[in-house]
Each structure stands twice: as C-alpha cells, then as structure tokens.
Design brief:
Layout lengths: L15 H13 L7 E7 L4 H13 L3 E7 L23 H8 L3 E4 L11 H6 L3 E5 L4 H6 L7 H12 L3 E6 L4 E5 L4 E5 L9 E4 L3 E5 L5 E7 L4 E2 L4 E2 L4 E6 L2 E6 L3 H12 L8 E7 L29 E5 L13 E5 L2 E5 L2 E5 L2 E2 L1
Parallel strand pairs: 1-2, 1-3, 3-4, 4-8
Antiparallel strand pairs: 5-6, 5-18, 6-10, 7-9, 9-15, 10-13, 11-12, 13-14, 15-16, 16-17, 18-19, 19-20
Helix pairs in contact: 1-2
Length: 352
C-alpha cells in the first residue's frame, strides 16, 4: 500500500499560522504572562517545533528558557521509534530540578516524556508537560486540540474507571479479553492546565494500562491496519496469539509478519512482547489515511493512534504491570468492536 504514494517534501519555514496554533494550545494549557516555562529539546529535535514553542511563549508573555540536551548514544539493538520514553535527560539532576521548578514545559524531545523515568519527579512539584509530537508543523496545525475535545475523553475515562472487562472483536478474527481490575486509566485531549499533569498533541484517545496477567486472546491485524513503529499500513493479515499479556506467536506468511517477528526478537527481552496499553480513538479530526500524504521524515504518527473508532493495542513499557522496555509497538486497528462490561463503545470501527 506504500507503493506509488504521492508525498510532498514540506518546508519547515516558520509560518505565522503555526505560531497561532501553538499560542492557542499553550493558552488552553493555562500559560499566563510571567509564568516560568521551559522548552525541553535535544540536539536531534525538530528545530521548527523548538522555535515555534519559544515564539508562542514569548507572544503569551511567559518567562521562557531552553533546556537542550545531547541526544544520547544509541544502546538498543534496533532503531527505537515512538516509544514515549525519552532517555535524553539521563537522570541528570540539575535538568530535573529546572524542569520540576517550571510552571509549564513544552516537551520537544524526539520520543517524548510520557514514560520517561524522570517524569514523576518532574510532575511532583506541579509542573505540567505538553509533549509536542515530533511531527511536521502542518500536522500539528491540522490536529490542534479544541476546548470541546475534553468532554468526550473524560466521559470515556469515567466509563473505564468503573469497569471490569474490555472485550475486542472483529470480522477479521480478533477476539481479545482484557481484565480492567487494577488497570490505570488515562486519557488525553491535547491540553491540560492542571498542575502535575502531562498531555500530548495530537491527542484524542482513552487508554487503560492493564495490571499483570490481564490480557488474553487473539488479535488479528487486517490489511490497512497500522504498525506505527514501522510507519506502515499492513498489506497482509497478521495474527497475534496473546496469553498472560504476552504475544506468544506471530502468525502470517508475509513481509509484515516477518518484520514484526524480527523486531520483537531483536530485543532479547520477553517484556517487549507484553502489552503496554489498550484503548480507542475519539478524535474526529484525526485521519486514518494521513500517513499516505507525508514523507516518513515529516510524520511521527501520533494522529493515527487517535482517529475516531480505532482500537489501539500497544506492546512495551507498562509501569502498572512493573514492566520496562524500549521495545514498543503502537498498532491502531480499524473495524473492531470494543465493549466495556458488555456495552459497545466502538461498533465495527465506528464510535458508538
């Protein structure tokens, strides 16, 4: 499906409209004149995002400063993509102290701070973090959150918090049972003015991080489903057999199946095969087909995690289950039915 893609090499010249987008999102995050605001980046960060963050904070009258870290040496056996677990800070205490003492942090690191080991310490003193996904600014402009995006995500979070079981089925053959007992529920709508919170842009999804031993069944990825780690639409079905949270078999005779088998095996780590989080997308402005229009260098894929009616299955780090690994797959799927305690929230890939 990638053959013959029509993509355009986009310029990253700073545009006034992109500054406007950053200003509006930062304003939704509660940035006020005089606030001490950090722009966190690393040497391999997308510089247009760093500059747009700076310009937006200046326009809002904040007292901004930069924290720039060297991108760390690669230690993983394979390329690491879209983990949400930046290791750029490297537990460097003066950096943690500077970030923790800030009111607001525009996180422009390559991978983001969602699962970074330093995040709890940064949030503890009330700093709030907006992870600006490593996307071309045109994507961020198109998916900028609106104030009304908050309510649907909060409603979904309330539904999940009191629930016992998530069931996921599909015509392709998915039949997955997820116990929600002991799960941690999260949701992101793209902004937060609450002290000690983290959100990311693009956004619009609700997630559960299941406790250990909670996920069992079969996950069948159909053609057109997405492997975001590879930035690839699947051309052929791939079946994942899941027992006690872990992928125990990857079935399929195709390049897609071979790629998944090879990537997971390369970690030499059983935790890479385990579930990180599960959830569904609520963002009606996010598009499943968006990857078709962008060069891989311009596209991080966060939007595809959140398109309305998607089911998102992810492998990798899960702090609730006590698992830590840089191996990570985000697998947004279409055409699924998702029920919470028997009540459908997504029906055949459409929000219910």
């Amino acid at each position: 499906p990638d053959a013959g893609r029509s993509v355009v090499s986009l310029s990253e010249r700073i545009e006034a409209k992109w500054i406007d987008s950053f200003v509006e999102v930062f304003r939704l995050c509660g940035v006020q004149p005089g606030d001490a605001c950090a722009v966190l980046s690393e040497t391999q960060s997308r510089q247009s995002l760093v500059q747009l963050s700076e310009l937006a904070l200046a326009r809002l009258g904040a007292r901004w400063f930069h924290v720039v870290l060297p991108t760390p040496k690669q230690t993983a056996p394979v390329p690491v993509r879209s983990t949400g677990a930046s290791d750029a800070i490297g537990r460097l205490e003066p950096v943690v102290a500077a970030l923790a003492g800030s009111t607001f942090i525009a996180d422009c690191t390559v991978e983001g701070l969602q699962h970074a080991v330093e995040l709890p310490q940064i949030l503890q003193r009330g700093a709030r973090v907006l992870v600006v996904s490593n996307e071309h600014p045109e994507i961020l402009e198109r998916t900028a959150p609106h104030a009304e995006d908050e309510a649907p995500v909060r409603d979904a979070m309330r539904l999940l918090k009191g629930a016992r079981v998530m069931q996921v089925t599909s015509a392709a053959g998915t039949d997955l049972t997820i116990s929600l007992t002991g799960a941690r529920v999260g949701g992101v709508w793209g902004f937060s003015a609450k002290p000690g919170s983290l959100t990311h842009w693009p956004a619009g999804l609700v997630l559960a991080f299941p406790a250990a031993g909670s996920v069992n069944g079969t996950l069948v990825m159909a053609p057109g489903d997405v492997n975001l780690t590879f930035k690839r639409y699947l051309a052929d079905p791939v079946t994942l057999r899941i027992a006690d949270d872990h992928v125990t078999a990857i079935e399929g005779h195709s390049v897609d199946a071979d790629l998944m088998r090879g990537y997971l095996a390369a970690w030499g780590d059983r935790e890479a095969y385990a579930v990180s989080h599960v959830g569904w997308g609520l963002n009606r402005r996010a598009r499943w087909d968006a990857m078709t229009f962008y060069d891989k260098a311009d596209f991080n894929g966060t939007e595809l995690r959140a398109f309305a009616g998607s089911f998102l299955y992810s492998t990798g780090a899960n702090e609730v289950a006590g698992r830590h690994t840089l191996g990570h797959f985000d697998l947004p799927m279409r055409g699924c039915t998702v029920t919470i305690d028997g009540v459908a929230v997504v029906r055949n890939g459409e929000l219910a």
